[in-house]
Amino acid sequence: MEELKLREVILAGHSLGGAIIQNLYHQSPNKITGLILVGTGGRLRVSPNILDTLKCNHLKYLETLFVGAFSRVTSKDLIKKATVEASKVSAEVTFNDFSICNNFDMLDKVHMIEVPCLIIVGNEDNLTPVKYSEFFHKKIEQSMISVIQDAGHMVMIEKPKEVNSAIKNFINKYYN
Predict the structure, then answer these.
(1) How far apart are CA 157 and CA 78, in angstroms?
(2) What is the DSSP-derived secondary structure letter of residue 154?
(3) Which of 20, 40, 23, 15 is nearest to 132 (CA)?
């Protein structure tokens, strides 16, 4: 934002990206005019099994997590493509990302978000369940929630048209 000299922005983030934009908002609330929180939470605890598997067996992590990160109706081909892309990131980097998630906790600051927020979640998200998004919606006065059917944690990959439609509706409601 500083490099591009952006004054007012809407930030979007998925999962850890959602944690990052929450943190940025609390650091510079006057520069951010909106948030799009996708499959994220105010706290992001990670199962110890995921962390242990990452330490010991990266391939097993990829096989098990990505099956659990998608809806049960998502095509196996799409899951395989996402797994191939994720395999390009080292186990160490992925472990560090999950460790950051595991230590993230801004539950006590969620109510302080005073810009419009769009909250998007897949109805089958097992990593950041719908209740996380409902918590945001209850605590953030200017918020819209979009629970997308037949989608898991990777909602933006599984249902891109629905995610884009939710974003368009949000922009039209708050910024037109």
Answers:
(1) 8
(2) T
(3) 40
Element housing 73 (H / E): none
**Tokens, residue 1:** 């934002």
The residue ranges of every structural domain in the chain are 48-98
- E-strand spans in the chain? 9-14, 32-38, 117-122, 143-148
* Structure token pair of residue 168: 């368009």
3-state secondary structure of 165: helix
Give the pairing of strands 32-38 and 143-148.
Answer: unpaired
Q: pLDDT value at position 104?
A: 97
Q: pTM of this prediction?
A: 0.95
Q: Is the pLDDT of residue 20 over 90?
A: yes
Q: Are 38 and 120 in contact (CB under 8 A)?
A: yes
